[in-house]
């Protein structure tokens, strides 16, 4: 049996999914795609998990599709067909997802970074949409990447395939933060700590709200949001949060040490 390429651990409410195939720069081989899908499903359904972190071993976060497995049209299409499910799992997860990059990302790897709610990288990380340079189109990843990027930057970087650094990635909306390598763990912990303070169902509903198409009519939009807001103020979770605030104590859902 092949060694596992993706690992899953849980610690104090944080479910960490680690890509561990450094020999091919964590490329999205068939085995890695399968294990990544399985662990994302597990983490999303795990009541002990409040936040999901996408981590990696080795110097590269993810180099995109495994091109060694894409040597025939059939195998290439198979990989492309499976990838939307992974991006969708990250994008629609009911739990916040944080991407943690200690190194570069390319192509599909950048798609996963964009799909995450929060993305933090070392300041030496680099990124590129290299698809056009091998004669293909960054079509699938565009679904998660384009909502993040400034339009002018998207046109430039998708069409040229030019490599860009972490500072530019922050500037155009791909990353939330770029930090020195020695600060990466602390910055990710800062984000996961803040995310864990939110009510689980409130976080899920807020993620869904952020993804929703806005109503064309302003009055309809306010009506929808008023219904959502009132429901949560009256909910068991909302009432517990209000009591905890008044009593100056952590809410019941906050992970304990």
TrEMBL record:
Top-rank taxon of the source lineage equals: Bacteria
Q: What is this protein called?
A: Methylglutaconyl-CoA hydratase
Return the PANTHER family for the record. ENOYL-COA HYDRATASE, POLYKETIDE BIOSYNTHESIS ENOYL-COA HYDRATASE PKSH-RELATED
Question: Which parts pass through the membrane?
Answer: none
What are the protein's GO molecular function terms? Answer: catalytic activity
Pfam family name, one? ECH_1
Describe the family membership recorded for this protein in Swiss-Prot or TrEMBL: Belongs to the enoyl-CoA hydratase/isomerase family.
């Amino acid at each position: 049996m092949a060694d596992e390429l993706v690992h899953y651990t849980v610690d104090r409410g944080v479910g960490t999914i680690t890509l561990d195939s450094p020999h091919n720069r964590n490329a999205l081989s068939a085995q890695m795609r399968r294990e990544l899908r399985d662990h994302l499903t597990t983490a999303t359904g795990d009541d002990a998990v409040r936040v999901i972190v996408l981590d990696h071993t080795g110097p590269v976060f993810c180099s995109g599709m495994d091109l060694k497995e894409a040597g025939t049209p059939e195998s290439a299409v198979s990989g492309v067909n499976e990838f939307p499910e992974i991006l969708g799992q990250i994008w629609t997860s009911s739990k916040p997802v944080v991407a943690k990059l200690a190194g570069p990302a390319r192509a599909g790897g950048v798609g996963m970074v964009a799909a995450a709610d929060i993305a933090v990288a070392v300041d030496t990380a680099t990124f590129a949409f290299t698809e056009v340079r091998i004669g293909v189109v960054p079509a699938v990843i565009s679904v998660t990447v384009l909502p993040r990027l400034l339009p002018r930057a998207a046109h430039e970087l998708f069409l040229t395939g030019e490599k860009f650094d972490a500072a530019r990635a922050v500037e155009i909306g791909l990353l939330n933060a770029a930090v020195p390598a020695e600060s990466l763990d602390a910055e990710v912990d800062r984000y996961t700590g803040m995310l864990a303070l939110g009510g689980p169902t409130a976080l899920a509903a807020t993620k869904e709200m952020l993804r929703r198409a806005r109503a064309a009519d302003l009055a309809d939009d306010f009506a929808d949001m008023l219904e959502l807001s009132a429901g949560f103020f009256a909910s068991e979770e909302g009432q517990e949060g209000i009591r905890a605030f008044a009593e100056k104590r952590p809410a019941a859902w906050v992970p304990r040490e």
